[in-house]
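Why predict the complex rather than its parts? Because the way molecules touch one another can change local conformation, and only a joint prediction can capture that. The input here totals 627 residues.
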Amino acid sequence: MASEDRGHAVIVARARHASRSLLRNFARSIAIFLPVFFVATFATFLLRALSGLNPARIQLGQAASPTEINRLEASYGLNRGFFAQYGSWLNGVLHGDLGRSWSDGYPVSTLIRDGLTISLTVATLALILGVVLGFALGALAAVRRTTWIDRGITSFLSVISVIPAFVIGIVLVEVVAVELKLLPSAGFIPFSQGLWPWLSHLLLPALALSFGCMSSVARQLRAGLIGAYRENYVIGAVVRGLSPRRIFFRHVLRNGIGPALAVLGLEFPALIGGSVIVETIFALAGFGQFAYTSAQTGDVPAVQGVLVISIVLVVTFNLIVNLALGRIAPAARRGV
Amino acid sequence: MIRRVLSRPAGRIAVAILSVIVLLAIFGSALAPSSPLATTSAQLGHISGSHWLGTDYLGRDTLSRLLAGSRASIVGAIEVALIAFFIGAVPGIACVYLGRVFEWLTLRLVDTLISLPFLLVAVAVTALLGNGMTVALLVVGVLLAPSFYRVSRAATLSVARSQYVEAAQLSGASLTWIVRSHVLSKVLPPISVTLASTVGTGFVVVSSLSFLGIGVQPPAPTWGGLLSSDLNYLSYQPWAPVAPALLIIATVWAANLLADAIRDVSGDAGRAYVSARVKRPRQPVLSRGGE
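Output of the joint prediction:
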């Protein structure tokens, strides 16, 4: 009875400790990312003042009368002081209102939503492809280190890592879509029209986007695992006669995975940013395309909305990565 | 240090490729067999004696456009790296000496810059601010500055607390003298590594922007712009993207190779680029020298 009680107490204490460290991690991550959010939104808002654009130029053209321009500017609240504008804009952003587009007056958040679904699907697919392929390649290279498999994978990765996404995209279109005719080269089909048509249009863009993520995950994982293999506890495990599989999963992977996870947090902005390129190549009406076209027309609120959304995405993703890192590889979080 | 970089095969290959490309950038327009803007009736022509790489959709000679476009692509990358160097390295060194407030502020700015989706911001900001090349280079330079900031800050921190700097301070050396004679020599190797790799990154970004038609005015050729027009005619000229793509890949690869070579010869100092957030993995002993 007594030992059962003690076991129970240990479990409770462990749970309490775990939740407390989780909370502490969370608080620390928030403390890092709050300033980031405010600095970034302020810089985004400065864009309007720097660009000197206004809705009248887009909607009314060059030949507009001053009274019309004034009326339109007042309807967008542009006749107030800079900080008053920033205050109400930030207030709106915190309530999920990103303002109205300068070109047609629609709420920016509705305009972004459709494109965001496409882009996030592509980015998630790319992340999955990059992580799965990167982990497989990195782990294989580390397990077979110093053999020709390792050398092959390492040189493949160093070539892959220097090819820009748009070159990879063009090569994929060329080889897979134009020559082999395996997958469509452009366009988007909603999920409601079937799994394969939907997936087949997204696979190539996701693959083009995933290469950067894949190569850095694989390189970091290989380096981390090889470092872990050189530790004394691995020699100890070998001496104790543990199976190579157990050594890999229990001892090496857990200790060597940190850098690979941490680099994911750095790669995610690249995935979001790369959507501009990939969506141009594969003619997807996504988030990046929306940013590109609105920036070209001078629609400042739309661009601000895109930037705010992408910053929120990046910050959230980094929070998740940091929390996962704290759980899986506490040692790798030192210095965060 | 230059001689030691050149003594390594990787360094020699990198320098050879980069010097060919720099020569292309300098003499490219002069070497071009015909004007990069002159249109002919031979549209989307095949590889032939008069057009070694064929012609594009307006009948312009592709080889000439490739050669003439090299300058914009290369010079852009170098300018971006230099801008990033000045914006990043100076506050990186200064923040160690200018007190906690300045350090905290710059660190938050760097955190912010790193968490921005790079290309998206470059595209959006450049297009909003008038689509010019100067704006594009400045924006990309600012976005690339954090790596210089981190590298120089880490190196300065490591030297600022070393015993010989303390000894210099005790013997009455001025701050500027310490920075000039001790800090700079410690900071320069990691910074030159970053400079080489930033030229590579900057090149990718500038080509990506010109691929999207940002930062360059349409008739002027760039490597990225060539690829984007090839994309529309892939079914007619499937081989067209090969030359610009290979040139872009070779340039970035050579820049990274040079960065690795400098890092290898500068020993420990070259690896002072421990970022503030990510714990760097240990360099595997086995891959040293082989790469």
